[in-house]
Design brief:
- The protein is built from five helices and 14 strands.
- By secondary structure, the chain is of the alpha+beta class.
- It is rod-shaped, with a radius of gyration of 39 Å.
- The termini are far apart.
- This is Zinc finger/thioredoxin putative domain-containing protein.
- Keywords: Membrane, Transmembrane, Transmembrane helix.
- InterPro entries: DUF3426, Znf/thioredoxin_put.
Length: 214
C-alpha cells in the first residue's frame, strides 16, 4: 500500500502492521512533518503519483470550492425577497428618514419610480402664532410655518383648539393643508408660509388656544 505526505507530496510505501503500530500516523522522510497516512492511503502506486499534479513547490495546490449555480440563484432570490419584505413593512418609514431619502431619490431617478411625498413634522418650525378678535366679533388665527428639511415636503394639517378662561375646551377643528394653501399643497426647502384662518366666535368668550401640526 502507498500513502503520500500532504505537505510535500512525498510517496511512502506502508504496511498494515506499520499503520497499526503508529495508529495511522507517519512522519514524512522528506519534510519531517507528521501526517495521517490513512487519509491518503491507496493500493495503486500510480494513482498516488498521479495526484502529485495538484502539488506546487512542495505544497498542495488549494482547490477552489465550486458553488453550484442553484445555490447562487437561491441566495439571490432570498436576498430580493428580504429587501422586498423590508420595503413592504418599513418602506414608508424609511422614505421619511433624511439619510435614506436622498439615496432613494437617486435610485428612483434611474429606475423611474415615485416615492410618497416627504413629510417630517420635526423639520417644520413655527415662528409665531396669534389669535385676534375682529370687528365683527369673529377671530383671526395666524401663524407662520417654515420647512427646514432638505427636501420639499407635504404641508401639514393643523388642529386648532379654543379654550375658555378656565382652560376648558370650547371648540376644536382640524384644517387641512388645502384650506390654507393654494395647490400644490407642498412646501419647498426653506419655504415659509403664512397661515390665516377665520374663526367664527363661539358662544362663550375665548380665554386661550392651542394648535398642533399634523
Amino acid at each position: 500500500m502507498f500513502s503520500r505526505c500532504p505537505h510535500c507530496a512525498k510517496q511512502h510505501e506502508v504496511t498494515v502492521e506499520h499503520l497499526r503500530q503508529r495508529r495511522g500516523l507517519l512522519d514524512c522522510s522528506a519534510c519531517g512533518k507528521p501526517f495521517d497516512a490513512l487519509q491518503f492511503l491507496s493500493e495503486d502506486e500510480n494513482a498516488v503519483l498521479a495526484d502529485e499534479s495538484h502539488y506546487r513547490d512542495g505544497q498542495i495546490a488549494a482547490k477552489r470550492p465550486q458553488t453550484p449555480a442553484v445555490w447562487l440563484v437561491a441566495t439571490s432570490l432570498m436576498l430580493v425577497l428580504l429587501v422586498a419584505q423590508i420595503f413592504y413593512f418599513e418602506g414608508h418609514r424609511l422614505t421619511m428618514q433624511p439619510q435614506f431619502r436622498s439615496r432613494l431619490d437617486k435610485v428612483c431617478a434611474v429606475i423611474a419610480c415615485r416615492l410618497p411625498p416627504y413629510k417630517n413634522l420635526e423639520e417644520l418650525s413655527v415662528s409665531h402664532s396669534d389669535l385676534r378678535v375682529q370687528g365683527d366679533r369673529s377671530y383671526l388665527f395666524s401663524t407662520a410655518v417654515s420647512n427646514q428639511a432638505l427636501f420639499a415636503q407635504a404641508a401639514p394639517d393643523l388642529k386648532l383648539t379654543l379654550l375658555n378662561f378656565n382652560g376648558q375646551l370650547l371648540a376644536e377643528r382640524v384644517f387641512s393643508a388645502s384650506e390654507y394653501l393654494p395647490k400644490p399643497t407642498s412646501l419647498a426647502t426653506e419655504q415659509t408660509v403664512e397661515i390665516r384662518l377665520a374663526i367664527l366666535a363661539p358662544a362663550a368668550p375665548i380665554g386661550g388656544y392651542t394648535f398642533t401640526l399634523l
